[in-house]
Write a structure and sequence with these properties.
With 453 residues, the protein is mostly helical. It is 71% helix and 1% strand. It contains 21 helices and two strands. Strands 1-2 form a two-stranded antiparallel ribbon. A hairpin with an 8-residue loop joins strand 1 (439-441) and strand 2 (450-452). The protein is globular, with a radius of gyration of 23 Å.
């Protein structure tokens, strides 16, 4: 009887993997693309809109502020209305806000839209982790989470070149390349929300492609294969916020997000300082970091299955990641900094399947919905501080930039500096707006003579 039930459970698990993971993977893929491709627009936003490096770092970090503050409330609503309804709402609203990023006009509008984007996307990832606790037994969770994490790795590898290609549409239809990037990616995300609504059942009992016996065994094993009774948090929400293991995991995740956001948001700018002008080429090189991340999310779950001791592996990866971040900030070598980015992706992404498997093994039910969101909330605040802190702490890369080898052309009333991305790519520095004026001048040989702002 036990062998027959085990076989039924394995069959049902394979069905769930084939049906659920593509939908969750696509949603997480677009989440990561929308969240990180703003890095590709960093230099263009500075030239076309006048957003400074410090303002960009603040705006990039503000996303994580609203994202973190609304994590727990979002998952409380998720627990009441179900994953299908709530993940659909998240995808549609964040896609709409992402498309609205094309209307950024100044630093204030950039800050507001980044805050709204974080609020719209809040709760997506802990919602997916909560779904894993409802569908899969503990022995399968590290593998399932590892497969989910292939989505951001692919997003780094494919999404960056995709965003760079969209930015090559600069000038088409009177729009800048970064406006096309935000518009197209936002509309695709709205379509992903529709896919979630039609293809993602909230619980095994809601899945039409499972028999009643398969749904029952999935639910039973997901509940019964958790942590021992004395290690679980049952019914008392304060344990989800104050349990030592939960706090330790939140601290480790905080370090992980500091590394990922601090390095990732500044990587395209680092490549531009080396002389790469084409947005597509920058996207291709930046996307190479996804290969090292993919290696990590496949290797570390295998190490856990082979040797166990996932907590020890998590601690070692966190220590290695901290050293890498310090080295990235202190480095004055472009080649070393790029190498550290790839190594950071390996550790930062590779340890996450182990991390969330440990977290899910210690929570169930409503406490899992709240506790997973709490860990993500604490950890994600690292992403709010990292872009700004690394922007201020990294040394200026004059030694890397070929543009500093010659002095900029002198300003004159006959040939004012041009701010457009086309002239910038030709090596012409941008103009400064006249005080009290709403007009920025272009060069006389530029196709568009003036920009009314």
């Amino acid at each position: 009887m036990t062998n027959a039930k085990d076989l039924l459970h394995e069959l049902a698990t394979r069905k769930a993997v084939k049906r659920l993971l593509p939908v969750l993977g696509i949603a997480y893929f677009m989440s990561y693309v929308d969240r990180t491709n703003v890095a590709l627009a960093k230099t263009a936003l500075e030239a076309d809109v006048g957003i400074s490096a410090a303002a960009y770092g603040l705006g990039a970090g503000l996303f994580f502020v609203s994202y973190a503050l609304l994590e727990v409330p979002s998952n409380l609503v998720l627990y009441r209305v179900g994953a299908r309804v709530w993940i659909t709402r998240i995808a549609v609203t964040w896609g709409a806000v992402s498309a609205a990023m094309m209307f950024v006009q100044n630093e204030l509008s950039f800050y507001i839209l980044r805050l709204l984007l974080g609020a719209a996307e809040a709760g997506l990832f802990p919602a997916m982790m909560y779904m894993v606790t409802l569908w899969f037994s503990q022995k399968h969770r590290v593998t399932i989470v590892g497969l989910i994490y292939t989505a951001p790795c692919i997003a780094i590898f494919i999404g960056s070149p995709m965003g760079g290609a969209l930015m090559e549409l600069d000038g088409l239809g009177g729009l800048h390349g970064w406006q096309w990037m935000f518009l197209v990616e936002g509309l695709v995300t709205v379509l992903v929300g529709a896919l979630v609504w039609f293809a993602l059942p909230a619980r095994p009992a809601d899945a039409r492609w499972l028999t009643q016996e398969e749904a029952a065994v999935l639910t039973e094993r997901a509940v019964n294969q958790g942590a021992p009774a004395q290690s679980r948090t049952h019914g008392r929400l304060r344990l989800a916020f104050g349990h030592p293991t939960v706090l330790l995991l939140a601290g480790i995740y905080f370090i992980n997000q500091v590394i990922g956001a601090g390095v990732g948001f500044n990587f395209p700018a680092l490549l531009q300082s080396l002389g790469l002008e084409s947005p597509f080429l920058i996207g291709v090189v930046a996307g190479g970091g996804g290969i090292s991340g993919l290696a990590g999310v496949l290797l570390f779950p295998w190490l856990k299955r082979r040797f166990g001791r996932e907590v020890t592996l998590i601690g070692l990866c966190a220590a290695a990641g901290t050293v890498i971040l310090i080295g990235f900030i202190a480095s004055t070598s472009a080649v070393l900094s790029i190498g550290l980015v790839f190594v950071a992706n390996f550790f930062a992404l590779g340890t996450l399947p182990l991390f969330w498997s440990v977290a899910m093994s210690r929570m169930s039910g409503l406490v899992a919905a709240v506790g997973l969101a709490f860990i993500n909330m604490i950890g994600i605040t690292g992403g709010s501080s990292a872009p700004t802190s690394t922007a201020w702490s990294r040394r200026p890369p004059e030694a890397w930039s070929r543009r500093t080898t010659s002095s900029p052309p002198p300003r004159s009333s006959a040939s004012p500096w041009c701010p457009c991305s086309r002239c910038r790519s030709a090596g012409r520095p941008r103009t400064r707006r006249r005080r009290g004026s709403g007009v920025r001048r272009r060069r006389r040989d530029c196709p568009a003579r003036r920009i009314d702002r």
